[in-house]
Amino acid sequence: MPSKFFVEVRDRQYKRVGVVEQYTSMEAITRFNGVGSWTLTVPADSPEADILVEGCGIIVWIEGVPAPIMSGPLRAIDHVWSADQPGASQAVYTGVSDEALLWSRVTLPVPSAGIDGQTAERYTASGPAGRVMRDLVDVNAGPSARADRIIPQLDVPLSALGARVHITTRFDTMGVKLQEIGAATGVGWRLRQGLADRLSFESYRPVAHSAGRATFSPSAGNLVAYQYKLAAPTASRFV
């Protein structure tokens, strides 16, 4: 049976304001150690359109999975109507995953100081990959950051996952630096809103499935579309 999606709507303060019970279509794309995207289409005259407003975000759950697969803010709203499809117009909402917040900060050589106090050449750190990533987020955007750089409602739980790494960074985009650490150690990370009205930065070990492959099919409910074509073989040159 296809998996069932459950979509919650939150406001600017990450408080839940409702549930999307009817929608025409929904697409959520997650990216490993990167920024995902989502699109949600609902009738423009539906109750859902009343809570899907500027500044809101969504939290996407899949039945049987204990944690949300994605959460993230709304970026744009499009209203669509066509004479070819008469009736009520559709509202198309597009957004990104919360990981986008990690691209809104650069890594300061001296995270506790302002721009005029960057007297060190580089920020350096050593330790397990999970802890290094956690500390990098904490001092540049989390509770330990300068007040003007803190991302509100962001938690950074302790972690000690992964192999030991040593990093140096200076005014790098924090999301890019986290990608580099993850690529070097195989440790995954994500930024999600779960049951609380807060965000949480977490590192994790990607699961290696014993079969060594993932299966996508219409019957599994995890494939949107496919297409293939049969044609005679060609060659660029005959000798």
Q: Number of DSSP helices?
A: 3
Distance between the termini: 53 Å
**Order of strands side by side in the largest beta sheet?**
2-1-5-6-7-4-3
Low-confidence stretches: none
What is the overall silhouette? globular
Which percent bin holds the helix content?
10-25%
The proportion of residues in beta strands is 25-35%
What is the β-strand count?
12
Averaged pLDDT: 89
- Main structural class: mainly beta
Return the string of H and E elements: EEEEHEEEEHEEHEE
Radius of gyration: 22 Å
Please describe the biggest sheet, giving its number of strands, its sense, and whether it closes into a barrel: 7 strands, antiparallel
Topology readout:
Layout: E1 5-10, E2 16-20, E3 25-29, E4 37-43, H1 47-51, E5 57-62, E6 70-82, E7 85-96, E8 123-128, H2 129-140, E9 154-155, E10 164-169, H3 174-185, E11 188-193, E12 199-204
Parallel strand pairs: 9-12
Antiparallel strand pairs: 1-2, 1-5, 3-4, 4-7, 5-6, 6-7, 8-10, 11-12
Helix pairs in contact: 2-3
